[in-house]
Amino acid sequence: MKKIITLLMTVITINSFSAQVLNNKITSFLTNKEIKNLIFGQYNLDVEIASVSKIKGTGEEATTKAESDAKAGVQTGARDYAYEVLNNYLSGALVSGPGFNSSKMREFANEIAKEVSASAQRRGSWKTSKNETVTLYTIDKQTIKSAAGRVFNERLGAVIQKLTEYRNNFEQAQGATGVTVETVE
After folding, report:
1. Which residues are CB-contacts of 68 (< 8 A; sequence separation ≥ 6)?
2. Would 153 be classed as within a structural domain?
3. Cα separation, 49 vs 143, whole angstroms
4. b or e along 132-148 (b: 16 or more beta carbons within 10 Å of the residue's beta carbon)?
């Protein structure tokens, strides 16, 4: 029982110092009501990934920490969304193998998140009644989806090229007997 209580306290403590991605239903549930009221109407979860950060204090240092925390949070949200998009593409492609699987999609999602995080927009910074600084950052889902599509198409193109090479080698070895491989682009 002590272990469970200690773990729960650790999770709550960590959660209180980190940015919360509002698209994540679990973490958005933990966002307090005052913060939700401050940021209400500043974002649209249907088309954006939103991250809010809360830091104790109202000075310049607190604002800087809140901004960097919110940027890190929106990058995490972008990574998760890119991974979801890439996995949907992967399941629709009906192709898998080394270098073209779920773990590789996770790597691509990390790269995409780093790439698109530069386009994150600061939607505002507020002070709460508890002497806290709250900062909101958002990023457009379409930007993430476009980057994911580009990366996936590049990788799929490489797979198609490799399969074409294998087909050509196979045809040469077989004396060009009627084996065909169809690719869809």
Report:
1. none
2. yes
3. 11
4. bbbbbbbbbbebbbebb
Q: Which of 139-143, 155-159, 172-176 has the lowest mean pLDDT?
A: 172-176
Tell me how far apart the alpha carbons of residues 134 and 120 are, in angstroms, rounded to a whole number: 16
For 5-50, how does the pLDDT look when each residue is reduced to its tens digit (9 = 90+)? Answer: 776 666 555 555 567 787 776 665 667 788 878 888 888 889 999 9
> Does 185 map to a domain?
no
**Average pLDDT, integer, range 138-146:** 96
Instruction: Work out the widest C-alpha separation in the chain, in whole angstroms.
Output: 80
Residue 141 scores a pLDDT above 70: yes
Q: Is 32 exposed, middle or buried (0-12, 13-18, 19+ CB in 10 A)?
A: middle
Determine phi and psi for 16, rounding to 5 degrees.
-70, -20
Banded model confidence at residue 177, pLDDT cuts 50, 70, 90: low
Question: Which domain, by its residues, includes 80?
Answer: 19-173
Q: Is residue 166 part of a domain?
A: yes
In a domain, 148, yes or no: yes
Number of domains into which the chain is organized:
1
Helix (H, G, I), strand (E, B) or coil at 19: coil
In terms of Cα–Cα distance, which of 102, 97, 76, 101 is closest to 23? 76
**Which residue shows structure tokens 């490799």?**
162
Please return the burial class of 130, using the count of CB atoms within 10 Å of its CB with bins 0-12, 13-18 and 19+.
exposed
